[in-house]
């Protein structure tokens, strides 16, 4: 069943990537005013990082399950796991961006300067870089999966782009958990 016109997959993936990254960079750069989002009680804003770490861990599980399912030839389970992973990613991003805009910017690192410079910043930078690079791969693989019937997917770049997206996704989510631990557990 075709959900996305085949000839539009590349352009749609490009447009979705540009729009998504524009929103992320606008929020991170303080270009979206706090008044653009509804006000939430402080306890909700404080809860978001904890919810997001659960979402991240769950997404690691669903991505891994999807990868294992396709290696075993279980296309239906793979599809369900990857769609679930994308939904988790979208939920994570929505909550993260909401908190970022609602609080006026990223949370400051509460630990020592040496840990900030030599551990936190490099981990955060790699996490963000992989998350950004992942977006076009992710959209392209997902849209190919919707544009072609299952029996035609092996003749597309879906598997190649899917492997890249899943690898970047797994590492990015894992490093996001490290960032959470440094911000909310260790310090």
TrEMBL record:
It comes from the Archaea. This is DUF420 domain-containing protein. Keywords: Membrane, Transmembrane, Transmembrane helix. InterPro entries: DUF420. The chain crosses the membrane at residues 50-68, 80-98, 118-143, 164-183.
């Amino acid at each position: 069943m075709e959900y996305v016109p085949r000839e539009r997959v590349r352009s749609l993936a490009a447009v979705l990537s540009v729009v998504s990254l524009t929103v992320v960079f606008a929020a991170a750069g303080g270009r979206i005013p706090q008044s653009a989002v509804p006000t939430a009680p402080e306890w909700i804003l404080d809860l978001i990082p904890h919810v997001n770490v659960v979402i991240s861990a769950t997404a690691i599980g669903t991505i891994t399950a999807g990868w294992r399912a396709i290696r075993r030839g279980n296309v239906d389970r793979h599809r369900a796991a990857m769609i679930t992973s994308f939904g988790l990613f979208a939920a994570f991003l929505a909550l993260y961006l909401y908190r970022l805009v609602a609080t006026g910017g990223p949370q400051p690192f509460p630990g020592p300067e040496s840990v900030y410079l030599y551990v936190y910043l490099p981990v955060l930078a790699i996490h963000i870089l992989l998350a950004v690079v992942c977006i076009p791969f992710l959209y392209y693989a997902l849209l190919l999966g919707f544009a072609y019937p299952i029996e035609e997917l092996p003749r597309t770049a879906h598997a190649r782009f899917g492997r890249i997206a899943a690898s970047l996704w797994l590492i990015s989510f894992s490093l996001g958990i490290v960032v959470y631990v440094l911000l909310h557990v260790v310090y």
